[in-house]
Amino acid sequence: MKERDERKEAVNEKGTGKGASEKEDLKEQDFKRKLQEMNLLDDFLFGTVVTYPEIGERFVKSLLKTVFGREFRHLSVTAQKVFYGADSDLHGARLDVYMEPEIEEDSERRATVYDMEPDRKGDKANIKALPRRMRFYHAKIAARSLDVGADYDKLKNVVIIMIMPYDPFGLKRMVYTIENRCVEVPEMPYEDGASTLFLYTRGTEGEPDRALGELLRYMENSTYENAVNKELHEIHRMVETVKRDPEVSAKYMLRHLRYMEELNKIKAEGLAEGKMKERISLVSKKLKRGKTLEQIAEELEEEVSAVESIYNAAKKFAPEYDPEAVYKQINADNR
Fold this sequence. Notes:
Blueprint: H1 2-12, H2 18-37, H3 43-51, H4 56-68, E1 76-83, E2 93-100, E3 112-118, H5 124-143, E4 157-164, E5 175-179, E6 194-200, H6 210-220, H7 230-244, H8 246-288, H9 293-299, H10 304-315, H11 323-333
Parallel strand pairs: 3-4, 4-6
Antiparallel strand pairs: 1-2, 2-3, 5-6
Helix pairs in contact: 1-2, 2-8, 3-4, 8-10, 8-11, 9-10, 10-11
């Protein structure tokens, strides 16, 4: 909200001349500096490069070529594709880059969907949740990869690629490839078309591919010095083109301001929830003591109408008058 208030202040000072102009210029310079410092593990820069006209498709093809060691000719790329739950109360998945070939790619003439995401959330809770998160992503993509009435053999392959600056499994490997296998007979063929690649930017164990290692290091620190081969030189030129675009700077500024507005909205709602819970707790305690509605309102120095809804909801939970249960009931009544 600070940024938004400063922008309002600048607008209000319009007509005072230099002050408003200097503040706007300073803010734009600050956002441009932040954009210049971004690397390809920042979701904004990654998604912007992917969808940038005349660059995005070449960029994605270059990434996939390095990861899989082969050319990709036909791709339809969408950044930040959201798969919502079947019901508004169900969890959705936001896929940073969703890539689907326009024609079949592999020898079996089966289309493959690729989801590629940079991921910087290396805290313990997120690492623990990674396998189930990937299971959820696969399910959401697969559910939309088969037309109604089509045979299961037409189900598209799904490959999810996670690029991360932290080691998701602690084995120091650059590549972790996850596929379903038979536990009793691991060598038994079992091809369900689903696989996940975790790419750790600093992995060293095994026999990591040199070109892939150079790409991952560049993605974590996207500087000219780290563009150490021909492919990366071309990628770096793409990245610099995107960073220099004034429209990209404006898009990043707008995104940041919207984020700040949403953050302040969440904070305000949190404060309102805290105040409501505090009032519910006070009313519940007085109900336990046998106080009437009028007595409670008088002791809280409130109008009767201000506490009546809480009082009526709390009475349903006698004799415990659990404040948390009362809060949930009030929320349910207000839907």
